Every structure is written in C-alpha cells, then in structure tokens.
C-alpha cells in the first residue's frame, strides 16, 4: 500500500516536527511495516521553476518541423532577471501561459542533464517541460501529452520553485500490510494508526452525516445474506462524461500506484483508497431491473471488465439483473454494464462481502484486483453507506451530477463478538508492568469498546476482567490473545526487555541424537550425500514402484490442504522421492548418485479417526491430549539410500565400476557395525527390488528393512541407470537395538594369529550364514573375520562355490599356542560343515 504523506496528514493532525522517518518508525512499531519511502521529484535536481512565456515565434525548419523560439520570464532564478531564450518543439501553449522551466544545471529523470546549447540557430538556455519529462502522468495539468500549462490563477510568481505545485516534493510511504490488517489498505486506517502512535487528533473520512435509507432507490434483492450482509446502492444523474479528473486526484492516484482512467472510475478508486471500501459503478442505463445478489448457476457465463469470458461456478457470488450476471461480486465487474464515455447516469454499489468467498472466487478465476485484495481480507462493513455517500458527493462536485432521491440499504452490519480476558493477561504475556488502566486505554485507542468487570475469586482475591468488543474494521481480532497483541503494539514492542533464556543444566545430547549423528557420519564416510525431500506422494509414485493394490504401503494419510494435487498424501516410504532425486542428478550430468535421507514416514493407525480441533485460549485436558495422540499416525524414523550409476571412478589406478546390489547391503552392514548391532542378511522378495537380488535386513529375528538391486521396471520408470540399488530400513528400530557404547578394550600387545580357510558350499548358501557359523565356532579368541574371495569353477560344479575367509585370532593376556590356534580354526570349520554343509578346499 502506497500512501502520500500529505494525504495521511489530511486525516490526522500530526505535529509539524514529525518527519516522514519518524512517522514510518512509529507505524512500523504499530504493525504497518515500512517497505520504502519514495519521492516523485527525487530524480530531479537543480532549478525547476515557474516561467511565463513572453514571446513565441514559430520557425519552420528544413526537416519539416516547426519549432518555437520563446522568451520566458523566469524571474531572478537565472541570476540576471533577464528573459530566458528557449527552443521548444511543442505547440500546446502560447504567450502569457505559465509553464515549468528547468534551467541549465538541472537534471531530469533518467539522468538527462540540461545545459545551454546551440540548436536550430539559437542558444537554448533551458527546457520548457512536459509532464512525461518530469515523471508525471502525461495529461497532468492539462498537458495532454504536451507541455504542462499551469492554471492562470496560480499564486506562484515566475522564478518560484514549481515542485510543491506539481507534487514533486511529495513523499510517498509504501507499507507492507499483513493479510490480517486489512484496515492498512486505506488512508483511513493508516491515519488512524498514526493518530494512535502520536496521540494526535484523527478526522475519520467515514464520519459524515448520511441520508436516511428509503424505498425510493434502485431496487436490490440479496438472496445470499451470509455472502453479502450489507448492500448499499445510490444513483446520480446528469453526470458529464467529458469531465476530466482534477490534477490533485490524478496525482494522488498515481502516487498510490493506480493509473487514472476517467473521472467516474477515478472517483470510485479514490474513495476505495481513502476509506478502504471497494466501490463499483455501473452505467445505470445499461442495468435491466433490480440488482440481485446470488450464487451463480451451472453453465452461467460472464465477460468481466478485463475482456475475459468466464464460466462461473456454483460457489461464485454474483450480482445479476434481469439479463443475468453483470459482475463477480466483490472481485470484478462485468463488461455489459461498464461505464463509458457516454455514461450520464451512474449507479453506485457499496457492499460488504464475505471474505472467504471473495478469496476463493479470485483464486478460482485467477483474478487479482485492488477491490478483491481488500474484500478477501475483510473490509469494514460499517463503511458501506459512508463510502457510497462520498462517491456521490465527488461525482456531483467534480462531474456536475445530481444525486437522485432514494438510498437503498439492504441488510445490517454484523455485530462483532465480545471477548473476555483477564486484566493482567497482557502483563503476564509481555513481562512488562502493564496495569489495568493502560490496557484499557490501549484497547480503546484501537477502537474497542471496553468494560471493566471486577470480581472476587473463590480464594477471596479480587480480580479484574476486561470485556472488549472489537471495532468493525478489525475482523482479525477474535480471541483474548489478539487483544493482548493490540495492547502490546500500543505500549510498544520495543519496551519488551531483552532477556536471554537461562541455560539449563545440560546433559549433552540424548542417546537418540548421538546415534543419529553417528549414522550421518558413517554414511557420509561411505561416500553418500544427504538430501531432504518433501514427504508427500501420490498413488502414481506407488505405481512406479510396482506395489500391488493391497500393499500396506499404499495405505496413507491424506492431507487436508496438500501443496500439490498430484502428491496429496504423506508418504509411507522414502524411496519415491529419493529415486526421483537420484534420477534428476544423473539427468543433469552426474556420473553417479549416492544419496541418503533420514526422515519420518506416516503409517495410519487402524481405527483412528480425525484429530479433534480444540480452542487455543485454554490448555487441553489430559483426556483431550490422549485423543489427539490417538488420532496421529505412527511416524517412525526411516533411512533411505539410493546408489545409481558410477560407484568407483576409473583412473590411472584402474577401471571404475557401477553401483550394484552388494553396495546397498555393504552400506547396511557398515552402519550396523558402527552401531554395534548384529545384522542378519537373508535373501528375500519385496517390491520394488529385483526378486533375485533382494535381501531382508534382520536384527534379533525382526525384519527392519530391505536392500538390493531395484527391479528393472522400477529402474526404467524412474529413468535411472541400469542395476541401480536401494536400501530402506526402520532407523528407530535399528538404533533401539544398538547397545550403549562401552569404553573400547585396551589393544593387546600380544601377536595376532592369522588363519585363512576356503570352504566349498552350495550356490544358494549365503556367505553371511557361513560367516556366522565360523564366528561362533572359533569362539572368544576370534578378533575379526572377513570374506576376501568368492571362487567358482567347472571343477567345483555349477551348483557350488568357494568362500575364502580371513580369520584373525588373538588373546589379550598371552601369546596363543599352536594348539589353541588349531583348535579355534578346526572348531570354526567343523561348525560351518555341520550347519552349512561346507567342505574345506
């Protein structure tokens, strides 16, 4: 919202010493945040003065142009008092006219410097200016695209600074107005806050003597009273459609960011900026019968003022006459009743509209208008009659119109609800010594009607309550803490002391936090990059994963207000968005993608209903809290990993390789080792993994997740490199299985005994099963075990393979004897033979 300072001062008697900076500082503290301070004449420097044209000689030129060689009286502004010689190519002025002259040394907008120079055979010492050259509307002060001709009765003498007359010295404040402060979208609201901040007298432009409503006005029928609580209609006749918008009004509209169009339209826009009440004017001769406010019917169409033909929804509130819809109520008028250059009777509409309906209509039809912006935020319903009367007054005063008898007022202003708060609530919230009298004065200052109720509590202690009725222009004030905010913004947020929170006796990171950090460091050390994805999916993502129709992962929590219609559900798996992230990186030139994410998923609870909504001014009871938690879905923390494309880079050291199923399982093993968890890897089948290259990850017999190569159809659906691998597991469950990390044992000073064993087993026997048997059979002397070779050959047979393990044996208190080493080795091999059918090569 842009507001000229002079316009603000028209409604509030600010002290002369209050600067624009001081005004904006105070208004920012009151909630109208400063965005910028502008001045139309800031780009103009040097002498810009009033000049009187003494002579004007027309001189035709060889190029076909005719120039004017003028002498202009600029008083003493040129330092000599002599007339100034100036060449001018415009012809809409003559001798005796008062014009605007910039003298040598001046600079116009765009950095256009003025100097004395020879042109067309004369030395032109200055420039006679047009409106456009000064950054003003082209038709300002009768310029009509040419030279500005000042009114003959201008009090300024030749040589006087012309900036004040043109409004070039005006300062314009641009405010950032929050959606809940609709009153800030009007000069009336801004001036009221300025008066509040400086304790200055305020003149309300809506405080006027209004004619009584009667039945003689234009007939109006409101069928939807909830959508339109108040509708006011007035009519003027004998309007002069050729009447021009006065310069002062055009200048103010331009300063406020609106383009002057015609007098009738400009008056409605001016009053909207002045009062905050959007007004619409109809050509009364084009309106057929009574105005009717109703919801649109299926199939109805309306061409709005922007020339767009729109198909209406049953939810749209429209204004109709006997011919059908003639306007989208509160958003934009219709083309059929638009005021034109032949309009002599104007029907003025000033109505209050239900804000939510206005917002939805604007979004539905993609219309953003100044009127809609105010209506959807909640304009003052009590301003309708005053705004209509102000429009009629200006049309009569500036356009020669006459107000027709009759004032139509349908409906009544909705009464605001009273709000009760404890008198000491503002003090308790702010931590400031705000007494009852200060709180009452602050609330009354913002327009509330306040009643003080004194009571005696059950403990015999007297208490005070404040019952406040908000003003009609503050529909955002609805609960006790809104009143607290009003008190604090008047008292001043800058008065709230800065108190650093006292540092609690810290216990360091929680166990969960420590484990999550170890998980992140481990995965980063494995060469993975962490990503953060939106936790939303649609059923199409599950289709790409190849999930069956009855797969539990398709049972999701649906969002009431999703960011996207394509992804309206909270995800039950991290894989869809991780796979999309990996694909996007590969598509943009990455040789490979190794990414991970730790995030919660939402698993619906069977039989859980919707969460109840409780009021915000009281704490919910224990039973209500239990109801809230019972309605929430389970939200376990999951870990997702995707490995696609290049895993090891090729170079002088050798060939590279692509990621495969073993890498995903290796990540899971590495993580389990870091957390001290015994992880069991078992062959499994689960979408979206390849049925022959998928492993279930188990801890203590419980499956926590899966890892392996993705199914080829999934790889193709997500445009990933061939044989891309993925891992997903329940990280909460994995961390819960992690033991508390003990102090690591002191390294033994005794030598290690190295034993390698190669065992032949059936092809379908997992290496993890053989390793587990060797570990148990070797006993407590085993320090580490590692699979270092897998061998297959024709001699072994197509259904057999050889697994070579490196065993490292050590005791902490002695050097192992040959018999101890042999016993541990033989025990390991024997148990592997018993459990896995292994034979030693």
CATH fold descriptor of the largest domain: BirA Bifunctional Protein, domain 2
Intertermini distance:
86 Å
Oligomer: single chain
CATH arch. level architecture of the largest domain: 2-Layer Sandwich
Instruction: Count the domains.
Output: 6
Mean pLDDT over all positions:
91
Helix/sheet category: alpha+beta
Most strands sheet? 8 strands, mixed
* Number of strand elements: 43
The CATH superfamily of the largest domain is identified as: Bira Bifunctional Protein, Domain 2
CA-atom Rg in angstroms: 41 Å
Segments where pLDDT lies below 50 for 5+ residues? Answer: none
Shape: elongated
Beta percentage is 25-35%
Tally the helices: 21
Folded structure, characterized:
The termini are far apart. Strands 29, 33, 34, 35, 36, 37, 38 and 39 form an eight-stranded mixed β-sheet that branches. Strands 3, 4, 5, 6, 11 and 12 form a six-stranded antiparallel β-sheet that branches. The mean pLDDT is 91. α6 (263-275) runs antiparallel to α9 (384-399) and α13 (511-525) packs antiparallel against α17 (661-675). With 841 residues, the chain is of the alpha+beta class. The protein has six domains: 2-39 and 171-198, Phenylalanyl-tRNA Synthetase, Chain B, domain 1 (2-Layer Sandwich), CATH 3.30.56.10; 48-166, Nucleic acid-binding proteins (OB fold (Dihydrolipoamide Acetyltransferase, E2P)); 220-411, Phenylalanyl-tRNA Synthetase, Chain B, domain 3 (3-Layer(bba) Sandwich), CATH 3.50.40; 419-495, Phenylalanyl-tRNA Synthetase, Chain B, domain 1, CATH 3.30.56; 511-601 and 636-737, BirA Bifunctional Protein, domain 2; 753-840, Ferrodoxin-fold anticodon-binding domain (Alpha-Beta Plaits), CATH 3.30.70.380.
């Amino acid at each position: 919202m842009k507001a000229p300072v002079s316009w603000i001062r028209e409604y509030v008697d600010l002290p002369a010493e209050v600067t624009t900076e001081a005004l904006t500082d105070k208004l920012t503290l009151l909630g109208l945040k400063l965005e910028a301070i502008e001045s139309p004449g800031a780009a103009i420097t040097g002498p810009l003065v009033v000049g009187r044209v003494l002579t004007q000689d027309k001189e035709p030129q060889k190029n076909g142009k005719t120039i004017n060689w003028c002498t202009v009286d600029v008083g003493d502004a040129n330092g000599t008092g002599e007339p100034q010689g100036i060449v001018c190519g415009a012809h809409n002025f003559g001798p005796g006219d008062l014009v605007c002259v910039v003298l040598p040394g001046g600079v116009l907008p765009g950095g256009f410097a003025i100097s004395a120079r020879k042109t067309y055979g004369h030395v032109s010492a200055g420039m006679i200016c047009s409106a456009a050259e000064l950054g003003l509307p082209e038709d300002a002060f009768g310029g009509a695209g040419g030279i500005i001709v000042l009114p003959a009765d201008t009090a300024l003498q030749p040589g006087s600074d012309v900036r004040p007359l043109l409004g070039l010295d005006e300062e314009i404040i641009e405010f950032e107005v929050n959606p809940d402060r609709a009153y800030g979208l009007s000069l009336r609201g801004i001036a009221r806050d300025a008066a509040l901040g400086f304790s200055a007298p305020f003149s309300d432009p809506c405080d006027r003597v209004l004619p009584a409503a009667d039945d003689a006005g234009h007939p109006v029928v409101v069928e939807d009273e909830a959508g339109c609580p108040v509708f006011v209609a007035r009519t003027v006749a004998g309007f002069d459609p050729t009447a021009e918008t006065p310069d002062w009004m055009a200048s103010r509209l331009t300063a406020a960011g609106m383009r002057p169009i015609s007098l009738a339209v400009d008056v409605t826009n001016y009053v909207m900026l002045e009062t905050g009440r959007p007004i619409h004017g109809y050509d009364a001769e084009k309106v057929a019968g009574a105005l009717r406010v109703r919801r649109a019917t299926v199939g109805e169409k309306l061409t709005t003022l922007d020339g767009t033909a729109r198909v209406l929804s049953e939810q749209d509130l429209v204004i109709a006459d006997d011919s059908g819809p003639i306007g989208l109520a509160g958003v934009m008028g219709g083309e059929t009743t638009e005021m034109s250059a032949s309009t002599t009777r104007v029907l003025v509409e000033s109505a209050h509209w239900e804000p939510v309906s206005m917002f939805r209509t604007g979004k539905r039809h993609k219309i953003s208008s100044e009127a809609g912006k105010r209506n959807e935020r909640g304009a003052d319903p009590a301003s309708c009659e005053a705004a209509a009367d102000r429009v009629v007054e200006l049309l009569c005063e500036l356009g020669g119109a006459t107000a027709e008898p009759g004032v139509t007022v349908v409906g009544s202003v909705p009464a605001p609800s009273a709000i009760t708060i404890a008198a000491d609530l503002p003090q308790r919230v702010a931590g400031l010594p705000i007494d009852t009298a200060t709180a009452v004065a602050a609330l009354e200052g913002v327009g509330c009607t306040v009643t003080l109720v004194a009571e005696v509590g059950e403990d015999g202690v007297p208490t005070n309550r404040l019952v406040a009725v908000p003003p009609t222009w503050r529909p955002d004030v609805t609960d006790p803490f809104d009143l607290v905010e009003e008190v604090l913004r008047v008292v001043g947020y800058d008065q709230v002391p800065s108190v650093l929170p006292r540092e609690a006796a810290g216990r360091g990171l929680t166990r969960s936090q420590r484990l999550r950090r170890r998980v992140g460091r481990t995965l980063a050390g494995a060469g993975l990059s962490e990503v953060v994805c939106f936790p939303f999916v649609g059923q199409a993502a599950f289709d790409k994963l190849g999930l069956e129709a009855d797969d539990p992962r398709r049972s999701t929590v649906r969002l009431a207000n999703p960011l996207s219609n394509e992804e309206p559900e909270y995800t039950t798996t991290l894989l869809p968005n991780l796979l999309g992230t990996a694909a996007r990186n590969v598509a943009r030139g990455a040789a490979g993608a190794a990414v991970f994410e730790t995030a919660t998923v939402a698993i619906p609870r069977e039989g859980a209903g919707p969460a109840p909504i409780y009021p915000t001014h009281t704490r919910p009871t224990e039973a209500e809290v239990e109801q809230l938690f019972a309605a929430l879905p389970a939200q376990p923390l999951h870990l997702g990993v995707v490995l696609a494309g290049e895993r090891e880079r090729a170079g002088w050291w050798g060939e590279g390789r692509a990621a495969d199923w073993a890498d995903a399982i290796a990540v899971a093993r590495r993580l389990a080792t870091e957390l001290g968890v015994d992880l069991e890897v078992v062959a499994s089948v689960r979408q979206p993994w390849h049925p022959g290259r998928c492993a279930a990850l188990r801890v203590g017999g419980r499956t926590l997740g899966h890892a392996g190569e993705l199914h080829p159809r999934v790889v193709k659906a997500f445009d990933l490199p061939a044989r891309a691998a993925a891992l997903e597991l329940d990280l909460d469950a994995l961390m819960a299985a992690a033991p508390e990390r003990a102090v690591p044992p002191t390294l033994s000073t005794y030598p290690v005994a190295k034993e390698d064993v190669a065992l032949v087993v059936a092809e379908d026997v997992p290496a993890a099963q053989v390793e587990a048997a060797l570990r148990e059979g070797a006993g407590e002397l085993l320090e580490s075990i590692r699979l270092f070779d897998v061998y297959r050959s024709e001699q072994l047979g197509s259904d057999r393979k050889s697994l070579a393990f490196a065993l490292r044996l050590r005791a902490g208190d002695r050097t192992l004897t040959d018999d101890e080493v042999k016993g541990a080795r033989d025990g390991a091999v024997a148990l592997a033979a018993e459990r896995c059918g292994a034979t030693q090569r």
